């Protein structure tokens, strides 16, 4: 029963990615049928741009998740054994943010199609959150860090030792 956890993860990840492929296709089908077919009179080029945006986001996030879920096998010359069953799809970090982006995109697409076009404005939220985390984790600590003192030269070291000797400082 060697590598049993990896084998289970391959099966779990394949089922999960298949389920999400159907969910994404279903959400797109609902949007196309209701918004493009039933409400064609109010369908404008902005709606086409919004549909293109959601399609690009779906493609990018699904591709990232699919690549993370993909199993890794040894080369056939070495037996083709399963090395890794793919990443755990419940882990924190980029995978978690990708799931959040899929949920957000699906919510915005369906609510803007069925309820109101004002829901497209919610696409401002994810980049705002990304900028906030970039600011507090990277930019602000980088620009607020004090400069390092210049390296001590021989002349500065002698002057410091002379002053310490005069004050009676011992190490």
UniProtKB/TrEMBL annotation:
Membrane topology of the entry: Multi-pass membrane protein
Ranges of compositional bias, category Basic and acidic residues: 154-171
Transmembrane segments: 20-39, 45-65, 118-143
UniProt GO BP: vacuolar protein processing
Keyword Amino-acid biosynthesis: no
A Pfam family: TMEM208_SND2
Region (Disordered): 146-171
GO CC terms, sorted: endoplasmic reticulum membrane; vacuole
Chief localisation class: endoplasmic reticulum
Localization (cell): Endoplasmic reticulum membrane
Keywords of the record: Endoplasmic reticulum, Membrane, Transmembrane, Transmembrane helix
The keyword Membrane is assigned to this record: yes
InterPro entries: SND2/TMEM208 (IPR008506)
UniProt signal peptide: none
Family: Belongs to the TMEM208 family.
Stored PANTHER family: TRANSMEMBRANE PROTEIN 208
Entry protein name: Transmembrane protein 208
Lineage per the UniProt record: Eukaryota, Haptista, Haptophyta, Prymnesiophyceae, Prymnesiales
